[in-house]
Amino acid sequence: MWPDDLQNHTFLHTVYCQDGSPSVGLSEAYDEDQLFFFDFSQNTRVPRLPEFADWAQEQGDAPAILFDKEFCEWMIQQIGPKLDGKIPVSRGFPIAEVFTLKPLEFGKPNTLVCFVSNLFPPMLTVNWQHHSVPVEGFGPTFVSAVDGLSFQAFSYLNFTPEPSDIFSC
């Protein structure tokens, strides 16, 4: 017998590799909410939110992650050419939405969130603009897998809103 209050949850550990950039990626999500992505240049987890920073320090599975990376790269080299033209290059168009992390209050610091959905393959570069002028200093872009071999991405920009502001990502 299962207790009536038992809930099903999903932990998704997704490793992907491709000819494009990024060439290899790993994301971990719980119930489709991304917890971390793995920065292969630093060999460490990067938390999507500051609250996950303590968990990001856990490195016990680093050898398994590096094995996954090497296996993924081997598959691209050995199997990739045999599948050329048989796997779709892209599916649909990415959809970007911009919203604030907290309710908007002019003159008070806030964070803009750029949420990109319907992303396949997981290759993108997020750039921010303020009044059509490129903005520097935004955070990293977090790419995570969702059901159905699709991906989503988040990018964050800290700002202090003014009534005439126009931002885009």
Written description of the protein model:
Belongs to the MHC class II family. Keywords: Disulfide bond, Glycoprotein, Membrane, Signal, Transmembrane, Transmembrane helix. It comes from Homo sapiens (Human). The chain is mainly β. The protein has 2 domains: 73 residues, Class II Histocompatibility Antigen, M Beta Chain, Chain B, domain 1; 74 residues, Immunoglobulins (Immunoglobulin-like), CATH 2.60.40.10. It contains 3 helices and 11 strands. The strands form 3 sheets. A 4-stranded antiparallel β-sheet has the order 1-2-3-4. The longest helix is centred in the middle third of the chain and has 17 residues. 16% of the residues are buried. The mean pLDDT is 82.
Keywords:
transmembrane helix, 169 residues, 15% helix, mainly beta, 2 domains, disulfide bond, MHC_II_a/b_N, 38% strand, Ig-like_dom_sf, Class II Histocompatibility Antigen, M Beta Chain, Chain B, domain 1, four-stranded antiparallel sheet, 3 helices
Strands, helices and their partners?
Blueprint: E1 11-17, E2 24-30, E3 33-39, E4 44-47, H1 53-56, H2 62-78, H3 80-83, E5 95-100, E6 110-119, E7 128-130, E8 133-135, E9 142-146, E10 150-159, E11 167-168
Antiparallel strand pairs: 1-2, 2-3, 3-4, 5-6, 6-10, 7-8, 7-11, 9-10
Organism: Homo sapiens
Protein name: Major histocompatibility complex, class II, DM alpha
Domain Ig-like: 88-169
- Could you say which overall geometry the principal axes of the C-alpha atoms support? globular
CATH architecture of the largest domain: Sandwich
Number of strands: 11
Low-confidence stretches: none
Going by CATH, the homologous superfamily of the largest domain would be: Immunoglobulins
Question: Under CATH, the topology of the largest domain is which?
Answer: Immunoglobulin-like
Report, as a whole number of angstroms, the end-to-end distance: 50 Å
Question: What class do helices, strands and sheet pairing give?
Answer: mainly beta
What integer value in Å does the Rg equal? 18 Å
Mean pLDDT: 82
Looking across the biggest beta sheet, what order are the strands in?
1-2-3-4
- Assess the beta-strand content as a share of residues: 35-45%
The CATH class designation of the largest domain is: Mainly Beta
Biggest pleated sheet: 4 strands, antiparallel
- What letter string, H or E per element, gives the SSE order? EEEEHHHEEEEEEE
The multimeric state of the shown protein is single chain
Helix proportion of residues, in percent?
10-25%
Number of domains: 2
Counting DSSP H or I runs of 4 or more residues, the number of helices is 3
Domain Ig-like: 88-169
Main location: membrane
Protein name: Major histocompatibility complex, class II, DM alpha
Membrane topology: Single-pass type I membrane protein
